[in-house]
Amino acid sequence: MLPRLVDIQSCIRLRQCIYHTKSSGFSTSSVSHAQIPPESPNFIEVPRLVQPKQPFPVQIKGVLPPPRKIFAHQRKGTPPKASPKYLAAVTPEPLQDKTTRSDDEFVRWKARQSEIRRRNLREGLTELRQRKTETDRRNSMMAAANSRIREKLLYAPERKDVRFTNPSVLSTQRSTKHRALPDPTRPARLAAMRQNVADMAAMREETRRNALHALYVNAGDFITTGMQLDNVVDRIFDDNSQFRSDGSEGVNIWNLGCPETVQELLGKVDRRGVQTALDSAEGNEIVTRERMRKISEELTGGKMLEER
To answer: Is the pTM of this model over 0.85?
Structure first.
């Protein structure tokens, strides 16, 4: 009997089956090594840990916008959404039925699309209204249940294990949940705090009154017109008589000499240092005048005009 010819493809399949049978007991992968291409990262088997890795949460980039409140607070005079009146206003029916026109297919298609949009808007608003009503009802039920549980735990009596293990304290000396400790000095403290608040309010009112009076007194020198501004500019920049000294007329403030130092100003107040004949003649007139002005302000209750 002549030997049977063997197909090459059959030999390849037999070889793959033998390899899979030999390697199935040592490999954890269900895919045979012959089916993995060389460019795959699984072509080289790497031993894996028995303990699985900790799954990390997937970081979703971006921020989703808050959902739109479709059924927000209803304005006065407007019909509620999902009502027949509102749906009839936002999805009006066409004046002419163009779905039965046989001359133009495009017009019939647009009419059908319009009808689909109207139907989807009506059904969507109705279903969203039902979903909102159901969600509000469920949330109110959960809130009421949580409130009842909280009230029950808040006003529940003391447990027996806590009461039996507490130290022996008289009931009159133990503070309860719904009664504050006695405070004999409370009325006096409240009266003192009320008086402090009243004093601070009066002080703020007096400060504000003084500020308004000072603003009224000094308002005579405010520049309110263009002519006043021109006069002040001409007097400051063109009038050189204010820079006149014994030696010359002068064109600027430096003709009057160097400005006084801090030590010289303190010497005038303390009456120390080098003094001119004019300073000696004045004596304490400047200090006395300032003190008299402050005393007058205290007596009259308002600001006094300064000498210019």
So the answer is: no
